[in-house]
Every structure is written in structure tokens, then in C-alpha cells.
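Standup notes
- DV: blocked on the single-chain target, sequence here:
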Amino acid sequence: MNKTIKKVLIGLLILLVLIQFIRIDKTKPETDPSKDFLTLLQPPEDIASIISTTCYDCHSHETTYPWYSNIAPISFWLKGHVNEGRHHLNFSEWATYTNKRAHHKLEECYEEVEEGHMPLPSYTWTHKEARFSQQQRESVANWFKGKMPKYENFEE
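- DV (later): unblocked, structure below
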């Protein structure tokens, strides 16, 4: 093996070991259950279970981090993914949304689920319990769509 390649590989190995000491923040922010999506909209038990299982890891403060979240650089990617998910939609903060924003988020939920974009394939690869059957996908999408009229009054 070429000396330069060997030095690069050793350097990469040292870097990989060193970044293991950089930990992501896994603390769950304080939440008020009265502001939570499932508490406020009270979906049927089967729909609530599906939403909780398939959406809440990335789109709420109820994230359950898997064992591989302890391995850098996977942990960095995972934390970024969760942060981005919460930024776009946070079910733990549903009550803070204006009617216009809540309506828009329900519309996005409907479209993303119906079109098969959510949950993400990269999530379902490691979370088999989050895979939708076609019937579940349709039920959840239609439930989101059915809740949109509740938020059509945009005058706050």
C-alpha cells in the first residue's frame, strides 16, 4: 500500500475515533401536553397510534433515539434530520400555530402521506413499525384532510 494512502487512512481512522467524543443533544424539551396535536384533535385510537408511531420521532419533542444515534457521524445526520423535521412541523407545539398555519400543515400532512413521501423511506428502513399499509396510508391521509375545515377561519 502506498505510504500516502496509508497515512490518509490512519488520519481518517483517528478522526473517526475523535468525533465519537462529540455527542448530540438528546434532551427532550419541556412540553405542555395541552398543546399537543393528538390531545387537541383527538383522532380515533388507530389513527392516533399510527401518527404517534410514524410521525412523532421527527415531528415532535417525543423523539426516541435509536442505539445508532450514539455513533458519529450518523448521530450528526440523525440530529439534523430531527431538527429539520421539528422546524417544518412540530406536533408538540400544535396549539401555538395560527389557524392559517395549522390548516397549511394539515394540508401538507395530507399530501405528504397520500403521495407516499412520509414517512421517509430512510426512516422506515430502520423502523419497520412505521411502515404504512395502503389502507393505513389512505385512512391517515383522509383523516388529516377531514380536519382541515376546523382551521379554515384565517382571521386570528
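- Follow-up: The chain has a mean pLDDT of 91.
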